[in-house]
C-alpha cells in the first residue's frame, strides 16, 4: 500500500512538471522567444529582453517565431557579443514619441522604463530620443521620400513632352550651336573670294537671313536653295550636316526610349511639387520621426507639408506601413516616410513608384538604456558586420524585388555630357572653316598686291571693308553702273 501511494505521488508530480514546462515554453500572444548562440548554460549567459515591432521585412511573425532583417541582425550580434535574448512585440505597436503627459510611448518608452534591454527595429535616431536612450552606430542609412501610385503620378503629362528627349541645357547648347554655325557660315561666305568675286558689284548669296534659313533647312534635313562654292563654306556646311544627322538620330532614339520604357516623367519630383498640386493627398505615420521632422523644420516647404498634414490629420495620417500601402495603391495618396522602407514597398508592389528627392538623411540604430555600456559594444559589432559585408548581404536578402521590369535602367533625358562630342566636332569644324576662309582671302590679297605693287596688308584691309559693306551699296552700284570708277 505504501509503495503504491509513493508511485502514485511520483506520477502526479511528474505530470505536473511536464504541464508546467510546456506552458512555460509556449510564447504568449504577440510575443516570440528566441535564444541566441551565447555561452554554455552552465556558465550563466547573459539573457537580454529585446523589444521590436512587426514590420515587413524587419520583423515578421511566422508561427511562434519571428524572422526578418532585424531578427537576423540580432542573431549575428548575439553570436559576436555572446548573449541570449528574448524577443517581444511592443505592446502599443508604436516606435516611440512623447505623449501629452510627458511620458515616452512605444519601444523607446519600454527601454526607458527598463521593460526591455534593447530595441532592435527600424528605429530612427533622433535628438529627442538620444536624450533618453543610447543608440548604437546606424545599421541602415535612410532619409525621407515620397511614394505614390505609378498611374496617379504619371497622369499630368506635359504638352511639351516632345522636348523631353533632351535636357534644358542640351536644348540651350543646340540653339547656341545653330546661331554660331549660321554666323560662321555668313562670315566664311563673306570672306571667301570663291563666293563672290566682285563685292562692289554683286550681292553675296549667304546673307544673314539666308544663312539662318540654310542652317534651319539642314537641321530638318530639307536642304537649301543656295549651294556653297568655296572650300571654307563647304567645310562648315559638311560639319553642320554631320552634326544634325547625329543629333536627329540621338533625338529619335531618346524619344523612342521614352515612349516604350513606361517610365513616365513624374510630375511630382520634389516636395515642392507635392505641396503645389491639389489632386493627390499626402500623409505619413502618426507620431513618427518623419512627422516630428516636418513639425520642427524651419524650411518653408517643409512647414507647408506639416500644416497640410496637421489640418487633415484625421484622414491623411496612417497607423502603420500596411495602411500606407493600401491607401497609396487604392487612391490618389502619397505616403511620406523612410526611403529605405519605401524601397521595399516599391519592390513588392510594382504599381508604386518613388519620387527622386530624398531629404533628412538619418539612420536606424539599436536603442539601449541611457548610458548603458552595451551601446558601445553594439556599435563595434555593427561596424564589424558592415566591414565584413554581412549587412549588405542581409539588405539584399530581405529587399529582393519581385518586379523584374524595375531592374531596367530608368530613362533620362540626354544632357550636354552625352552630346559633348558632337558639339566639340562642330566647334572644330567651324573654326577650321573660318580659318580657311581667311587663308583664301589672304591669298587673293597677296596676288592683287603683287599686281598693283601695293602692300598686302592694305589690300587685305580694303577687301575686308568691301566685303562687309551693307547690301544696299551693292544694289545701288548695280542700278547705277556709270558711278563706278574704272
Given the structure, what is the number of helices? 19
End-to-end separation in angstroms reads 157 Å
Sheet of most strands: 6 strands, mixed
Percentage of residues in strands: 5-15%
Output the radius of gyration: 38 Å
Shape: elongated
Model description:
It contains 19 helices and 13 strands. It is α+β, with helices and mostly antiparallel strands and 486 residues long. The protein has a six-stranded mixed β-sheet, with helices on both faces. Strands 8, 9, 10, 11 and 12 form a five-stranded mixed β-sheet that branches. Strand 3 (60-62) and strand 4 (65-67) form a beta hairpin. The longest helix has 33 residues, at 420-452. It is elongated.
Map the helices and strands.
Elements: H1 2-25, E1 31-32, E2 47-52, E3 60-62, E4 65-67, H2 69-81, E5 84-89, H3 106-112, E6 118-119, H4 127-130, E7 133-135, E8 140-149, H5 150-153, H6 168-191, H7 208-219, H8 231-261, H9 271-276, E9 281-283, H10 289-296, H11 300-311, H12 313-316, H13 321-330, E10 333-338, H14 339-348, E11 352-354, E12 359-364, E13 367-369, H15 374-388, H16 390-398, H17 420-452, H18 456-467, H19 471-479
Parallel strand pairs: 2-5, 2-6, 9-10
Antiparallel strand pairs: 1-5, 3-4, 6-13, 7-13, 8-10, 8-11, 8-12
